[in-house]
Amino acid sequence: MCKRICQIIKLKPTAEEEYKAIHAAVWPGVLAALERAHITDYSIHHYPPLQLLIATFKYTGSDYEGDMKKVGEDPETRRWWAVTDGMQESFVEGAQGSGKDIPWWTELQEVFRFDGKA
């Protein structure tokens, strides 16, 4: 079974160019950690009027929390977050960065889905 995830966070206006540039060439180790964690079809969209970043991905594993913990323990991912977190502002009160106890990105509730015909 596939779990779909949608998350949002605010992009600092001064970081827009740098954020897009770094995501044009995501570090291979970061992508490998996502793959090991059963994450597929990952995309991030930018909505400039509100400076929103909207991330969507599919999780195909069987232990979402455990796999996300492993991503957070990956050294290259932690280095990536040290760069990208500074470009973002969390909507979650008390959040201090990716991989911490309080989520950095806000996960959104799915209220509608249409899969169409197979």
Automatic annotation (TrEMBL):
Record-linked Pfam families: rhaM
PANTHER family in alphabetical order: L-RHAMNOSE MUTAROTASE (PTHR34389)
Leader sequence residues: none
Gene3D superfamilies, alphabetized: 3.30.70.100
Stored InterPro entries: Dimeric_a/b-barrel, Rham/fucose_mutarotase
Taxonomic placement: Eukaryota, Fungi, Dikarya, Basidiomycota, Agaricomycotina
MF terms (GO), sorted A to Z: racemase and epimerase activity, acting on carbohydrates and derivatives
Protein name: Rhamnose mutarotase
